[in-house]
Amino acid sequence: MVSKKNNSISISSEKNHSVVFTPSGLRGIVKSGVSVLDAARQLGVDLDSVCGGRGICTKCKVKPSFGNFSKFNITAEENNLSNFTEIEKKSKEKNRIYFNERLGCQAKIIGDVIIDIPEESQVHKQVIRKRIELKDIDIHPTTKLYYVEVEEPDMHNPSGDLQRLNDSLNKQWGISNTKICLKVLKNLQYNLRKGKWSVTCAIFNETNEIINIWPGFLDSNLYGIAVDLGSTTIAAHICNLSTGEIVNSSGIMNPQIRFGEDLMSRVSFSMMNEDGTEKLKDAVQETLNQLCKTLIKDSKIDHKLVVELSIVCNPVMHHLLLGINPIELGQAPFALATSNSLYFKSEELALNCLQNATIFILPCIAGHVGADAAAVVLSEAPNESKETVLIIDVGTNAELILGNKYELYACSSPTGPAFEGAQISSGQRAAPGAIEKVKIDPNTKDPIFKVIGSEYWSDKVEFKNFVKNQPITGICGSGIIEAIAEMRINGILDKSGLIGSSIETGAKRSITDGRTYSYLLYEDKNNGENKIKITNADVRAIQLAKAALFAGSRLLMDEMKIKKVDKIVLAGAFGAHISTKHAMVLGMIPDCNLKNVISAGNAAGAGAIIALLNKNSRSKISKIVKKINKIETAMAPKFQEYFVSASGIPNSMFSFPELDKVVKLPEVNFNKKKRVRK
Predict the structure, then answer these.
(1) List of residues 6+ apart from 11 with CB closer than 8 A
(2) Is the pLDDT confidence value at 12 over 60?
């Protein structure tokens, strides 16, 4: 007997165990002794396998996590999976799997488990939104190349090779008091002699450290990597430090998702597990190292030429990257271990794919407003604007900045993972086959949609050909926002967030769902069980997320003593894919002329690139951050009032005259029968 409810499948048996798969978030109850691969198939989890479960292909590699996971109410112990089989042992000996990996076809579930499906084991890869929009940047990197001709050793005037190199750097370039690490010093004499007493030095000018040496004249450029370390995804961009060109970009899911989808779950994991912080640190450092390694390899660049990294992240990710227990960020007064900008060497953060590179981490603004928000300020420059600008970096933990050239305010708002497709009945993260755009016909009330991977709408013949090869698998964050907004525009949903019946709405797709109704967005005619619908529980999850976002905006407007903003910028990889009209219909953002509501792409990533390419921007943002007024939403008396009013669609307290000029929302009320929300 198999039952499906709220993205969870239950398989009845005498002895059952809970299993959670990340990053998909799919979870359920499975029979004891079932292999991880079979459990994945039963729950609809995307896990690859081409050898029929014989352990030959090793494509079903998974990473189990152990510890106390309060978010899932699971304590996963190492003996909750069966022992390594002989096939797995041989795979480890041949380095086909690593010490922390198992083969899904071999490992049996004999207790509650958390299983992470790494990217290489997924059939349909996650789409990492990494669009970058850059303004003109004054290229002034911190690390530069210097060609130096060094005097040969003389028996009558004895001195060390390093001393003569330093003398030459001073005479030829005016660089003095240089430093050098042992790793570089070991190869100095070889490089000098191979270059016939001329070398090219890469020097980090903040400290005058010689970070690498090449024999003779190096006819090449140096490179750096800008990293936006998000709680859900990690995006990286490799840049030419001389020209500013973005050579290549890549992204990957944050592996910490298996410890908790939201930041507070990861804080809780650190608190409840003695080695929790270490596990979280190791997971993200290992993945970041792999991402940089792959990016460098795909770009066909010598890893020795990659000399700098700039990293932006929220405060919890900031601490977990550095291995600092984030417990203080989980309780008032939300104290950071440090809010200053930081420098590290690559080996200090286990980035072994790099050689002696310097890592720069931008400063944090406050306990819940991090270096990523500082990077957005650097990129969008609201401090240089005469207009009042509201910047919303939409994500699992949204960060908001409001201000102009005279004053800046900042806060964070805990929106949760609903905008990423989590907590939604048919929700998923952005991947091929996920619905990302929705329109509803005002007359028939029937939908058409677009999915990731196809440029055609669902009513086109070309789309039907696409679906033959790529099944429609769910709906991602931008899709759920457009679907709910379209339902409100077309009278299928009332302002309280209740879905009406087919009789009340005229929508034949309004179907009974217990004591409430759902809207059927898609049904696979070949597989009746594959239905994608918008339930009242889905609407509620989005209402809670968007209410937190709006409440944060209003608090900042109160602090600045304004009633309206001149411009709204939706930042973040996710924010770049939100329809601005639909966002305002939902009431995610305050009322504003829609012509002045724009998407900025990954503004945090853009700020990381600016910090990478221009050394002066680093001191500039450090000064700006100290002048920003920080507002703590958790302690603000009016937050709850604004939050409750913002659960209305668009809002029960504030009017939206600018929105009314664009679309008239119908006055419908489906509360007559006093239906109970699920």
Answers:
(1) 1, 2, 28, 29, 30, 31, 42
(2) no
Orientation angle between helical segments 477-489 and 536-560, nearest 10 degrees? 90
> What is the dihedral sign for C-alpha 562, 564, 566, 567?
positive
At 666, is the secondary structure helix, strand, or coil?
coil
Query: From the DSSP assignment, how many helices (H) and strands (E) are in the chain?
Result: 18, 31
The residues near 343 (Cβ < 8 Å, ≥ 6 apart) are 206, 358, 359, 360, 361
> Is the CB of residue 366 less than 8 Å from the CB of residue 332?
no
From CA 413, how far away is CA 434, in angstroms rounded? 27
Task: Answer whether residue 387 shows pLDDT above 80.
Answer: yes
Is residue 248 within 8 Å of 225, Cβ to Cβ?
A: no
Element (H, E) at 624: helix 615-627
Can you state the percent helix, strand and coil of the chain, rounding each to 5? 35, 25, 40
Q: Which residues contact 597 (CB under 8 A, 6 or more apart)?
A: 567, 568, 570, 580, 583, 584, 589
Q: Are 663 and 397 in contact (CB under 8 A)?
A: no
Q: Which residues contact 631 (CB under 8 A, 6 or more apart)?
A: 409, 410, 411, 555, 556, 559
Query: To which residue do tokens 């995307």 refer?
Result: 46
DSSP 8-state class, residue 152: P
DSSP 508-570: TTEEEETTEEEEEEEE-TT-TT-EEEE-HHHHHHHHHHHHHHHHHHHHHHHHHT-S--SEEEE
Please give the helix or strand (H or E) that residue 240 lies within, else none: strand 233-240
What letter represents residue 249's amino acid?
S
Q: Quick check: bond before 650 cis, omega within 30?
A: yes
- Above 80 in pLDDT, residue 671? no
Where residue 381 falls (left for φ over 0; alpha for ψ -120 to 50; beta otherwise) is left
Distance between CA 315 and CA 366 in Å, rounded? Answer: 8
Between β-strands 510-513 and 516-523, what pairing exists: parallel, antiparallel or unpaired? antiparallel
Phi/psi for 652 (5° steps) reads: -95, -5
Instruction: Calculate the alpha carbon distances from 191 to 148, 201, 216 in Å.
Output: 12, 10, 8
- Sheet harboring 209-215: ordered strands across? 143-149, 198-204, 209-215, 179-180
Helix (H, G, I), strand (E, B) or coil at 583: helix
pLDDT tens digits, one per residue of 282-304: 999 999 999 999 999 999 999 99
For residue 278, the tally of other CB atoms under 10 A from its CB is 14
Q: Say how far apart CA 488 and CA 485 lie, in whole Å.
A: 5
Question: Tokens representing 87?
Answer: 């096939």
Give the predicted TM-score (pTM) of the model.
0.81
Reported in sequence order, the residue ranges of 12-66 that DSSP labels E, i.e. its strands, are 16-22, 27-31, 61-65
353 within 8 A of 301, measured Cβ to Cβ = no
Residue 133: band (very low, low, confident or very high) from pLDDT cuts 50, 70, 90: low
